[in-house]
Amino acid sequence: MRKELEAGILRAALYVLTLAVIPWAAMSRVSPEILSYVAQVGVDVSGILRTIVISGVVLAILALIGSLDPNRSLTSLGAKLSSTIVTLYLGIYLLSLGKPSTLGRVILTQPTEGTEMSLLLDFRGIILLLVVGTIFSASYHIATFWSACREAGEPA
Amino acid sequence: MKLRTFLKVGSALTVVLAGALLLLSLHAYMTAMVSVAEGGGVEVDIPSEEGPLLVRFSVRNGGLIPIDAYSSATLFSQEEVISTDSDSLGLSPGESGEVSLSLEIPAGSRLNLSDTRLELEFGFRAVGGLTGFEVRAVIRGGGP
Question: Lower Cβ count inside 10 Å, N or C end of chain A?
Answer without folding.
Answer: N
